[in-house]
Give the backbone structure.
Amino acid sequence: MQLTTHTTPSGFRLPSIHAAHAFFTEQPNPTTQSVFADNWIRLILSYARHRRLFILRVEDAEVAGGDWDEILRNERINRRVLPSHLNSLISAMVSRNLAYYEPPKQTRSVILLWRLPEEWADVLHSWGTATGQLNTILTLYEITDPPVPSPLSGMPLSLLRRAIAILTRSGRAQLIGVADGEGVRLLAGGK
């Protein structure tokens, strides 16, 4: 089979390497494995951004019809990523600070950083500025589940907290305790 790109039902364009049988297995040659791992990591993060997926679990390699099926399986060549291979890719992403384990103290589920926490901090502050939320106390729920969808919709709370911590250190936010948990006040301060 010729290696060609392919567009998934969600509109994501898979690179031609996704049509290679060897791409779906861990390689014994460290150089080849490193190249394939780099390609997998780029593919996973690009797809996550395309679909706005934040969580990747080792179990996603076993679940047919899940959110990750379009990239973790290739029915055209009858291949799929095995859980052990996905686990090693997850470990590589964590070691490169492109993901972090969530919940902590386990190694089977990660939050993907298709935007770095610093970028999310800027997105949060820009959203607050554009929507007139500066100096208003917002619950974390109001940020991740606003009445009008935003770039922050569906964001995991642990990632939002990281973004808020960055804004707090730069004087652009203040974490506040509110009756039903945590809140944040976005401030007009500069970086």
About this structure: The longest strand covers residues 173-178.
